Amino acid sequence: MTTERMRNRKSFVNSILAFVMDAVILRSRRLLAGPIADSGLVGKDLNRRASGAQCAIPFSVTPLGRAALTSTVALLCILCVGCGAARPASYYQLTPPSGNAADPLPDNVYPVTILVGPLTSSHLYREDHIVYSSSGENMGIYEYQRWVEPPAEMIQDVIFRSLRASGRYRSVHSLHSSVRGDYLLHGHLYDFEEISGSPMSARLTLELEMRDTKTGDTVWTHLYNHDEPVSGKDVSAVVAALNRNVQRATSEFTASLAEYFSAHPPATSSPAPQ
Question: Are 14 and 137 within one domain?
Fold first, then answer.
């Protein structure tokens, strides 16, 4: 269920709740006003109160009116309890692509240390909400469907773990570590969202670049942009498609990096100082 549908449902329930409350108030006023007005005790009550005397106003409700009022109040209580119940949130995570079963040969290990830096992105992807987009530039978020971490951080972690698990590099570390690296890998996350419509899809647009830490030159860039089909209509199907898209992108990035180092063999150097 999209956020817009949830808002429409909430608005519909609030409308019913307001109608029931108005009916209860109107019914109560009629029940209270009828016996008092008919008995002619309104003026007498004012006079007695002015003189300090107490007045007991007779009040009577027919059995049919009492039953109607009781049913209305009960319905109002049910609606209030239903609207006030907290809906549990569902959390989702990404998984890294599976590595090769066989370990790489020693001559396939590039003698470089790669540092993986953060991914910059829109504030939407630095929060844990799942984002959807529909009708052109309109975007929204799911309130009760969330990621365990912000997408920019999760994707960075998937890339980091995939490079380290590939075994193709002497070492792979986070930029925040104390290790000096030969290359710095970072990038920008442009899109990571559900594309509503028929058919639905999961879009990922991510650009990575690698910089030589000695010269400061950017030596490699790669742009990934793909809409993965969604095989379902619920949020879990969207998450599965986004996860497949991230795995596909990560495999493409690692293969492209390996091609770069194959075409530009780095000189053998001493291990990176700590």
Answer: no
Q: Is the residue at 45 inside a domain?
A: yes
Residues 56 and 153 in one domain: no
Each residue's pLDDT, cut to its tens digit, for the chain (274 residues) gives: 444 444 555 555 556 556 656 665 555 555 545 544 444 444 444 344 444 444 444 445 565 555 555 665 566 555 555 555 567 889 999 997 665 544 555 567 999 999 999 999 999 999 999 999 986 788 999 999 999 999 999 999 999 999 999 999 999 999 999 999 999 999 999 999 999 988 899 999 999 999 999 999 999 999 999 999 999 989 999 999 999 999 999 999 999 999 999 999 987 655 544 4
The per-residue b/e assignment along 116-153, b for 16 or more CB within 10 angstroms, e otherwise, is bbebebeebbebbbbbbbbeeeeebebebbbbebbbbb
Pairing of strands 169-174, 129-134: unpaired
- CB-based contact 188:206 (threshold 8 Å): yes
Q: Report if pTM > 0.85.
A: no
CA distance 104 to 12: 60
Whether residue 32 is found in the same domain as residue 96: no
32/76 same-domain check: yes
Taking the C-alpha atoms of residue 111 and residue 168, their distance in angstroms, rounded to an integer, is 9
* Domain assignment of residue 124, yes or no: yes
Q: Exposed e or buried b for every residue in 90-110, given b needs 16+ CB within 10 A? A: eebebebbeeeeeeeeeeeeb
- Work out how many domains the chain is built from and give that number: 2
Domain limits for position 46 = 3-84
Based on the domain organization, do 115 and 250 belong to the same domain?
A: yes
